Amino acid sequence: MATLLYRLGRGSYRHRRIVLSVWIVLLAGLAIGATVLSGPSTTNVTIPGTEAQRALDSLVTQFPAASGGSGSIVIAAPAGRTVTDARGQAAIAEVTAEARRLPDVAAVLDPTQTGQVSRDKSIAVVRVQFTKPVDELTVSTKNAFNTIGAGAQRQGFTVAHGGDIATGQPAIGRTEGIGVLVAALVLVLTFGSLVAAGMTLLTALIGLGVGISGVYTLSGVVSFNATTPILALMLGLAVGIDYSLFVTSRHRHNLLEEMEPDEAAGRAVGTAGSAVVFAGATVIIALAGLSVVGIPFLATMGLAAAATVLVAVLVALTLSPAMLGFAGRRVLPRRLRDPDAAHAELDAEESPKLMGHRWAELVTHHRAVVLGVGVLVLGALTLPALSMQTSLPDAGHSPAHTTARIAYDLTSKGFGEGSNGPLIVVVDATSPAALGANTALVTKELAATPGVVMVTPPTVSPSGTTALLQVVPSTGPSDPKTADLVHAIRHRVAGVSSATVSVTGLTAVGIEVSQKLNRALPIYLLLVIGLSFVLLMLMFRSVLVPLKAAFGFLLTIGATFGATVAVFQWGWLSAAVGLARPGPLLSFMPIMMIGILFGLAMDYEVFLVSRMREDYVHGASAREATVSGFSHGARVVTAAAAIMISIFAAFVFSEDSTIKSMGFVLATGVAIDAFVVRMTLVPAAMSLLADRAWWLPRWLAHLLPDLDIEGKLLRTDDHAASPAGDATRKTSASDI
């Protein structure tokens, strides 16, 4: 593989104009496609085959008027007034009249008819039912809905819009630019050259543009969740910069060794590029593996993000050496273009005075203490994860100033928090007579169920064989007690009627999504751990190194989710991240983040441990190999981790709670894995294992293929003819 990548890198360097032109044309074509072909994203999260989803799907044919999107308009009277006095009634009449004029409206329910007036008569709720799902409504309809009640507001009434139509979609904001600026600063400090930093950043941004444009182009034919482009942006930007950083760093090192520029670029791709391929493959496989969970929206999110990472890998292998060709020796600072200064810089890289070398010496000298303290600290951070709760997001976790949050809070104040997430009970019978008798039995049973505040009168379909009952819980949509209530209702109504009874609605669907994801989480984690073991065993030809890496990954995951639970669920330091309201974690976040963090964690494992192995194979003792291998890779790994953390941390400032929590998990996970696990516990463990770290049964050694990740072929005389071949010192993917 190393020889193939060497030829690819050298060819891209020599034919840089063609390579750059291809990427620019691809970017322009996909950008046009994204503009012309992109379709609307969806906020719906569904799992086919569940009871709640089957009931919703059946309503499309049996009860079309009840299967569309819905919204609520909450009207609150000013102090000293009520919604039932003359002005209050006029305000309600104005709101209902405006709502009826909207396109695709099936029904507008006046609060005086539905009883949606609070006991103190200060709050009323107008319910609006649409004929189409929310994702099929036009933007103009949604905007018009959110402007209803302007006249009532001028008279002092508070009017807030809620429901699924009022829920905004996450969007890319200005704060993400902060991460790019920090990444640029880290690159300048790492390279000491504006040309090298700018070229690396530009390369990554071109790849990001291609990846994101591709996602939006495909959105015209594939339905994507609204979070998908944001996730693709996070990953594409972070890994794009990191992968280009690794290749550029290795190229600069080769130039310092007085290689010809095209040879330096070829060897950079052949060595560092091998590790980029491996690291990128782990991220791609882990994300694509989400398809086996059996949840369509999660599979599309994973595949879209994986495609963006694939683009980042291809950019690093082709566009990076091409851009290096345009930069020439200007990729080095002026002071290092002199041969004497270059030799001095190479000698300095081997100096025991370097921070990385001193840190490795300290960690390996006190390896038992470091391992003990590290495992205990990460274990303590893991404890909050034992109480992790998950749910789909609701308006109660939106920023306090948004209309959806205001509507949620007013509804909770007037009618209880459960009114924000009513359950829908569907009764299907064979005839109108059977429906009436069974609906009465079900209504009686529901009213007697603990945790039920109210059961509305049934709404009967035109055929007379289907009835809908709205059940208002005493707890909110994301409260674990609401999930218990759903199970209790299903158990109680199972045998009381001869009709088919289903519990559905957005709240019930969200509960089933969370439960299925929680059941799939251990299976997926086992899949990821097994994958990491096989891949690392192939690369390092060792049994204990993969075991160590897998255990370190478990520590990373546990500590990361423990910290996330403490902040987002318990509310510790929530003000520091601008969290509007603590609550359960996003249901699909744990399984998604496990896949992403697994791939990112393997990046640092590869770049650090591969050099340790090479030095050991070439005669260094186990401890010497650990120290020297760590000191060679520490600087670049530190820079790469700092870039990823800054990019992910920028998303923590997003107003959307979903994006905020994902940014926090990724930033925290990378920080823990890079600086605590890989750069502290790994050298300590490698030193403790000593020669045993590289043990591999002889029979297994014969079975495993040699992937040539370390670039052994580049150090032989029979690789693609190279004038610098004999003079080249031994290299590895982490020698950058």
Describe this structure in words.
The chain is α+β, with helices and mostly antiparallel strands. It has two domains: 2-37 and 171-392 and 512-715, no CATH class; 70-162, 2-Layer Sandwich (Alpha-Beta Plaits). Helices cover 61% and strands 7% of the residues. It contains 24 helices and eleven strands. It has helices at 2-14, 16-37, 51-62, 86-100, 111-114, 139-145, 150-154, 176-191, 194-218, 228-256, 261-288, 296-327, 339-349, 355-365, 367-382, 403-415, 432-447, 480-493, 506-540, 544-569, 589-617, 622-650, 657-689, 698-703; strands at residues 70-76, 105-109, 123-130, 158-162, 390-391, 423-428, 452-455, 459-460, 466-473, 500-504, 585-586. Strands 6, 7, 8, 9 and 10 form a five-stranded antiparallel sheet that branches. Strands 2-3-1-4 form a four-stranded antiparallel sheet, sandwiched between helices. A hairpin with a 5-residue loop joins β8 and β9. The protein is elongated. The model is unreliable at 715-736 (pLDDT under 50).
